[in-house]
Design brief:
This protein is of the alpha+beta class. It folds into 2 domains: about 180 residues, Porin (Beta Barrel); about 130 residues, OmpA-like domain (60s Ribosomal Protein L30, Chain: A, 2-Layer Sandwich), CATH 3.30.1330. It contains 4 helices and 14 strands. The strands form 3 sheets. Strands 1-2-3-6-7-8-9-10 form an 8-stranded antiparallel beta barrel. Strand 9 and strand 10 form a beta hairpin. The chain is elongated, with a radius of gyration of 44 Å. One of its GO terms (biological process) is monoatomic ion transport. This is OmpA-like domain-containing protein. It is a multi-pass membrane protein. It is found in: Cell outer membrane. InterPro entries: Bact_OuterMem_StrucFunc (IPR050330), Beta-barrel_OMP (IPR027385), OMP/PagP_B-barrel (IPR011250), OMP_bac (IPR006664), OmpA-like (IPR006665), OmpA-like_sf (IPR036737), Thrombospondin_3-like_rpt (IPR003367), TSP_type-3_rpt (IPR028974).
Length: about 375
Amino acid sequence: MKKILLTSALCASIMFAQSAPSSNYSYEVTPFAAGILSDSQSNLANDNYANAGISLAKNLKESFLDQVELAIMRSDSLNYKGTTNGNTNINRVFLNAVKKLPLTEKLAAYGLVGAGYQDVTQEIKDHDDSALVNYGVGLRYDLPYYGVAVKGDVRHLFGFNDKSNDVMYTLGLAMPLGKKYSENIAAKVPVIEEPVAVVPVVDGDDDNDGVLNSKDLCPDSLPGAVVNENGCEIDDDNDGIVNRLDKCPNTSPDVQVNEDGCVATINLNIKFDTMSDKIKSRYNSKLQEFANLLNENTNLKATIEAHTDSRGSESYNQRLSEKRAASTVRSLEKLNILPSRLQSIGYGETQPIATNDTAEGRAENRRVTGLINQ
């Protein structure tokens, strides 16, 4: 009885689930095998017995329901408890409404509910002919052959006369009958059309770029320009500047460029006092401008290069240049530039841009520059 109540609750909860449209066939015939778990009121010696049956379903179109099904089934020859010659067969007929719920392209769940009648060939004690109701849920899997599907379900059967509560489980093979036609078949009257004179179209290439006018999306290409199949000049790095005008032909994706196809660079050019790696406050605006450029173009990276004059030993100047580069990187990180986008290099005194023989020249050589990597 616990199994019956649990099955009933599950059936009632999902039997009215939403469904996909019905199949492409008008009817569906399903031979099936079934087993029935009978309660003790039937007085049968075997409370789990086999049945065989067949159902015919009508597929509905533009309806809440997907099918109306008529099913008949017959049981094995069954013995009664406590008798030596008492046996019976049970014939049942059902009329059910079916609602499907697609789960995948080929797999669907379905719920059914309906009424029927059972005929007991030999009635003993309370096992009588009776009106029935049944409801349940199942699964169907459409095979890739001619609309055939495998179906299986579990149902609760209730008999009014003998107050029986049975659980039925079925397995069947659904086969289609009568394919639907979505279009109305109407007689077609042949229409005789008069021939129309066809004037040949001459397709030219007005801009002489090798692409015919009918396919040329850029019909005014300059003489000698290299174009693609649409007649438009090629822009290999997709920065909006064609190769012919692009002075930076390998710009990183999604980077904003100027009319030359290059990123607008900023001359960082920070100067340092002798033997110092401290950045003076007057360079704050330069650092902010440089950081803004990197923040606006997140695909860009930068290389910070630092230099010294020639006073002091080479090893000291090398360390000093590295400190100046690192100091500049820290300032940019404070302006929300990720460390992974910054590279620092110290060149010491090896790359002067002015003479080290004068104070002015040495001041020019004590510098940091920022290079944008496109």
